Amino acid sequence: MTLNSGHAILSRKLTTSTGIKQFFCPGEAIFVAKLSIMKIICLLFLLLPITATFSQNYYPFIQQGVYRDEFWAPELQFCIYLYGSRFWFQGDSAVNGQVYQKLCSAPIQGAPNTVFCPPYTVDTSVCSVFALMREDTAARKVYRYDFEAGVEFLLFDFSAQVGDTVTVGYPPESFIVQDEWYETWGDGSNRRRLNINTLDDSYFTSWIESLGASNNLWDPTSELCICPHGVCYQQNGETLYGGNCAQIVSTGEPKIDFSNLLITPNPATQNIVVQIFEKERNLDQVVISDMLGKVVARQETAGNQSSFEINVGHLPAAVYSVSVFANGRNAGTKRFQKI
Q1: CB-count exposure of residue 146 (10 Å: 0-12, 13-18, 19+)
Q2: Is the dihedral of CA 185, 79, 212, 131 positive or negative?
Q3: Superfamily holding 261-338
Q4: Can you give the pTM of this predicted structure?
Q5: Of all helices (H) and strands (E), which one includes residue 43?
């Protein structure tokens, strides 16, 4: 009887809420664990688009072994384009304690030379320094040094998100990022493309990761030109974007050191400024020739000048050679584009 009473008491204890909780504690723990796992899975699904946005590989703008070919024409030509240039990064230079990469350029030739048609060729043994740039790959921003103003400015901000307002170029101009998408290149990589508009919605352009601006590779604020414009991007000999890349040839021309000679702007529309940086040299005259060697402009200067301006607005759009004479002798030759 005592034993049965004990069983009865134990049974009553197990039927209380406390007893039930104690008895079902392992099951409840499993239920709570499953609930927590479901919450985590749901959270991961919610974060997936955000994670995908920021986990995409970033392809740097400044890379070695990369050639960018850009082709232009004021209007449609027999073979679409009238002239072109190849651009690549080679070497560095320090300005005010900041190290920049040198962006070199060389004119592209057509075949035959009288008509600018493919197959295109380029001699990279002779080049001019087109610009100085640096890149903060962690921030996904590209900076350019302005020779004339002596200042650095933001060229591209590839970290910008849809809805952001970004200020780039010199003089600075503000844009709003309207949308984005990814382009698949020849190597299977996905490169981010940002479609941006001016704040007053007057015009738009696009920035392509690792390539540049769609309207003009080196001008993030360039408006769309209703004219022939083509781009080709090669890396380690493989064409990844565009087509009709120029083939490298050697013309046997002597290499020229352009480190002390500068022509800005390049490309030019109206005027160019010719500068020489060796203090012991003073400019005497500048001679501009077309690619056939014909002299199309000449300007002399008096006095001890290290730079002066020359008008090229009357010249047809093409690539020209500028020969600089200083202290009575040829100080070097450099090319520029007239657009």
Answers
A1: middle
A2: positive
A3: Macroglobulin (MG2) domain (2.60.40.1930)
A4: 0.63
A5: helix 25-55
